[in-house]
Design brief:
With 485 residues, this protein is α/β, with parallel strands linked by helices. The chain is 51% helix and 10% strand. It catalyses: L-proline + a quinone = (S)-1-pyrroline-5-carboxylate + a quinol + H(+).
Length: 485
């Protein structure tokens, strides 16, 4: 796809003066504390359900206006209807979107429906207002500049300027209201080069004697359980031009890291499909070695726990980083490319790299979350638990309480997509945890791939949003009765 970049003039957001909601440092749990007495002593045995108050719609949505609640309930109901989602996806992909009046109509309709619900705005001004509204409600925002795949250096340079401007915008927001800047390395390194580098890294994993002269210090990116079927034969070495392009891509990432470090704003690198993920991990970890110092990780990687090798890779990477004295930050997610990954593996005659059952994925996410919470409690590492699963939220709350992990800036953050899992977000925030919303912004045409992914890859998630829909409906009825009587 062609790359787009938000013009400089619309990336300049207003300055606000407000503060984030205070967060508590002690969280009741399902289990007794096992942390040292100096950290925590005999916490009350309160069920995690009571802490999150997930059945109290009035409390959960107290900071949400009735208008916004109505719109959210309507959108969640609409996206739970399969045929409606199919029609919306067809319209957004259709040739009608490419020309004249029909294009304008489709853009307008998309902007007023899917876009307005799942995106923070078309420019930094509206995105800033969206973050301020979240800030007033006790939540934070991850700024996600909505550009994706790039295919040449010119596009990569334009995209880098957009990311750098996003960091500048973050400085104008209320203190601590923006938690992370999010970057897709596919936007600052040509896709074809990421595929080539991934192939070479996989082949070196198969044959350790295979020399990569351009390779810099990094951390383990494969485990013994990692799939290597993508690379069927020995790849040709990078050409001098490709090596030069790789150096340019690395320089773009390091420039972005340096800018984030200067304003003390963590940079979160998003994960992609396994075809290019090895190269992304390689570049991310190399940047982390350079910029993660002391107890303040600046560079965060993303681990998709629906992959069978996720836990093994997490253990290897954190062990190597600890040996090097590098504090690590990770965002844990379940994953967003399930159908793509399964089809690709099948085309090579291999089993899917995705866990065989959804429960296996839940178990992997929860195990990785527990492991990282232990790291947070006992060292300099940090973790973002990006989940819409209420049970995972409850387990993490219990574990954090057990370990005495409270409000430590950027050490523990929960995260959900903007426009989704509202009850869980507010429940975690009310329980005293830092909670962020993943907030994509940019012109409608630019973020269309993101919207299509939300519809396609999260179809089951949207259909399973009944918990939020039920709570919202109950709260709207309560407000109506209160207004009438």
């Amino acid at each position: 796809m062609a790359t787009r970049v938000i013009p400089r003039k619309i990336l300049k957001g207003p300055r606000y003066n407000t503060s984030t909601k205070p967060l508590n440092t002690v969280h009741p749990s399902l289990t007794p504390a096992i942390a040292p007495p100096a950290l925590f002593e005999k916490p009350p045995k309160v069920p995690a359900e009571a802490v999150l108050a997930m059945d109290d719609g009035e409390r959960l949505f107290t900071s949400v206006s009735t208008g916004r609640l109505l719109r959210s309930a309507a959108m969640l109901h609409a996206t739970a209807v399969g045929p409606m989602v199919d029609m919306g996806m067809w319209v957004m992909r259709s040739p009608l979107f490419q020309s004249g009046l029909w294009r304008d109509l489709v853009t307008y309709t998309t902007r007023e429906t899917f876009f307005s619900h799942f995106c923070a705005g078309e420019d930094a001004v509206t995105a800033s207002k969206s973050i301020m509204a979240l800030n007033d409600a006790g939540l934070r925002g991850m700024l996600v500049y909505g550009v994706e795949d790039a295919h040449d250096n010119e596009g990569c340079d334009r995209n880098l300027n957009g990311f750098l401007e996003t960091v500048t915008v973050s400085k104008s927001l209320p203190p601590a209201s923006a938690s992370f800047i999010v970057v897709k390395i596919t936007a600052i390194c040509p896709m074809a080069l990421l595929e080539r580098v991934s192939d070479l890294l996989r082949w070196q994993q198969k044959d350790p004697s295979f020399v990569l002269p351009w390779k810099q210090d990094s951390l383990p990116i494969f485990a013994e359980t990692s799939p290597l079927y993508h690379t069927q034969k020995r790849p040709e070495p990078l050409t001098p031009e490709e090596e030069s392009d790789l150096q340019l891509a690395n320089q773009r990432l390091l420039q972005l890291c340096q800018t984030c470090e200067e304003v003390n704003m963590p940079l979160l690198v998003d994960a992609e499909h396994t075809t290019v993920q090895p190269a992304i991990d390689y570049l991310t970890y190399a940047a982390a070695i350079k910029h993660n110092k002391g107890s303040n990780p600046i560079v965060f990687g993303t681990l998709q726990t629906y992959l069978k090798d996720a836990k093994d890779r997490l253990l290897l990477t954190t062990k190597a980083a600890e040996k090097m004295g590098v504090p690590m930050g990770f965002k844990l997610v379940r994953g967003a490319y399930m159908s793509t990954e399964s089809k690709l593996a099948e085309s090579f005659g291999n089993a899917s790299p995705i866990h065989n059952t959804i429960q296996d994925t839940h178990n992997c996410f929860n195990d990785c979350a527990s492991f990282m919470l232990e790291k947070v409690a006992n060292g300099p590492d940090s973790v973002v638990l990006a989940t819409h699963n209420i049970e995972s939220g409850k387990l993490a709350v219990a574990k954090a309480h057990e370990l005495g992990v409270g409000k430590v800036k950027n050490k523990l953050e929960f995260a959900q997509l903007y426009g989704m899992a509202e009850a869980l977000s507010y429940g975690l925030s009310n329980a005293g945890f830092q909670v962020s919303k993943y907030m994509t912004f940019g012109p409608v045409e630019m973020v269309m791939p993101y919207l299509l992914r939300r519809a396609e890859e999260n179809r089951g998630l949207l259909a399973a949003s009944g918990f939020d829909r039920q709570l919202m409906r109950k709260e709207l009825v309560r407000r109506l009765k209160a207004a009438v009587f």
